[in-house]
Write a structure and sequence with these properties.
The protein has twelve helices and eight strands. It is an alpha/beta fold.
């Protein structure tokens, strides 16, 4: 049996409870994929992005849902070594990828302050533009359970805003099919299949590790780790908070780039 078939089988069989079932649950719970969808699946080269690609491949192969998929590698300026490893993994996993190059890392240069937040913002805008060019109405990104928690916390502490599970921009919907899958399960899947992915999908994180500096993302990881020592449910609680925001406690929100005073809307509903 070819290796990619063994890898596919492991998702459905060996890791059915930890990965496949949670992937399907997210698809159904949040209605992420529907008939007629055209989805741009974004692959950074990380373990989670390739797992997401394989899960979506399996869904398309076996599901009655009729949708189209475009598998793309967003290259913000990876080193030659990392880009080669990304493409090698695409061949091993039998994922037909197209590389979309950008100069995001060059533009950011040596910025240290708010680097993570700026990078996320620039990559997100790049994704929306490319999705529109391809005629896609949805973008699939590989944020897993822990990513959702960390990025939501990052937005609050460094971006001065609270982001929720879903977002739309330029008529393109951002979906996270792995949002219920924990990072530990993804790591176990990689080890079981002897897969090797790029260690640092982020230039700034890579630089911080090499020169023993700190990044905003690493600071969030440390904070959550410390909080979990006090409250074991802290990660689950943060996830539920961004998944189900209670608007009764929110004064205003931003909808279609305009701020809406929710207190007025509540009065009108009375």
């Amino acid at each position: 049996m070819e290796k990619y078939k063994e890898i596919e089988r492991s998702i459905i069989k060996k890791f059915r409870k930890e990965i496949w079932s949670k992937f399907i649950k997210a698809i159904r719970k949040y209605k992420l994929i529907n008939d007629g969808d055209k989805i741009m699946v974004c692959i950074s080269g990380s373990k989670s992005s390739y797992l997401m690609a394989k899960c979506i491949q399996e869904l398309k192969r076996h599901s009655v849902i009729n949708f189209d998929v475009y598998y793309v590698v967003i290259n913000p300026g990876y080193s030659d070594y990392n880009l080669e490893l990304i493409l090698d993994n695409a061949m091993i996993l039998n994922v037909p990828v197209k590389v979309l190059n950008s100069d995001i890392f060059d533009v950011l240069g040596d910025i240290d302050k708010n680097a993570c937040h700026l990078c996320i913002k620039m990559q997100r805008e790049f994704l929306y533009n490319k999705a529109n060019e391809l005629g896609c109405n949805k973008i699939a990104i590989a944020h897993h359970f822990n990513d959702v928690i960390e990025i939501s916390s990052l937005s609050i502490f460094y971006g001065s805003k609270a982001t929720t599970m879903m977002s739309k921009h330029h008529n393109v919907e951002l979906i996270r099919p792995l949002c219920l899958v924990k990072e530990d399960s993804i790591i176990s899947w990689c080890k079981y299949n002897n897969l090797n992915f790029i260690n640092f999908s982020c230039y700034f994180t890579e630089r911080c590790r090499l020169y023993e500096m700190s990044s905003e993302r690493n600071e969030i990881k440390k904070l959550l780790k410390e909080l979990k020592m006090v409250n074991d449910d802290v990660e689950y609680n943060i996830f539920k908070a961004v998944d189900n925001i209670n608007c009764d406690f929110v004064k205003e929100t931003k909808i279609n780039e305009k701020y809406v005073d929710l207190t007025i809307n509540k009065k009108n509903q009375v």
